[in-house]
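Review form for a predicted model. The reviewer records the input and the model, then writes brief findings.
Reviewer: anonymous (R2)
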Amino acid sequence: MLEETLPSLPPLFGNPLLRGELHEIISPEPIDWLPQTLGWQILGLVLAIALLRRSWRLFRFWLRNRYRREAQQRLRDLGPSASAVAVNEVLKLTAMTATSRREVAALTGAPWCHWLQTRTNATIFSRDSLQILGAALYDPQSDVSSARRDALVREAHLWIDQHEDDHEFG
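Model under review:
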C-alpha cells in the first residue's frame, strides 16, 4: 500500500555506475622492474657473484683474525695488575697462531724481543717493555711499577692489532 503513495523517482537519481552509462577504465599492465635485456641480466649476475665473493673473503678474514680478538680479550681479562709473565704468555700464544710453533716456541729473552720487533712495520715496544718481557721468564717476581706495566699492556694490545700474519687470506 505504501508503494502507491510514493512519487516516481527522477531520471538522474542514484548511482550512475548502476545505470550502465559509465564504462570501467582499464589500466595498463604494470611496468616490470626486472631487466628485460640479456646485457643487464649478465651484469646483474656478475655483480651478484662479485658481491658473494667479496662477502666470502670478508667472512674468511673475520674468521682468520679471531685469534687476535681472543688475545685482546685475554689481555683485558688480565686486568690492570697483569704480570709481565702473563702478558708474555698471551703474546707467545698469539705469535704461535700467527706463524708457526716451530719458529716461536723456543724463543726467549733477547731473541724473543727481537722477533716481536721484526713482526711489525713500526717500533711498538719501548726499551723498558722489551727489558721487562725479556727478563720476565727468568725473574717472574720482579717488581715492576704500575706505569711500566700499563705501558707494557698498551704496547701488547697494539702489537696484537698490528703484527704480521704469515697465513694467506686469498
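Findings: Residues 52 and 103 are 36 Å apart (CA to CA).
Further findings: The chain has a mean pLDDT of 84.
Recommendation: see findings above.
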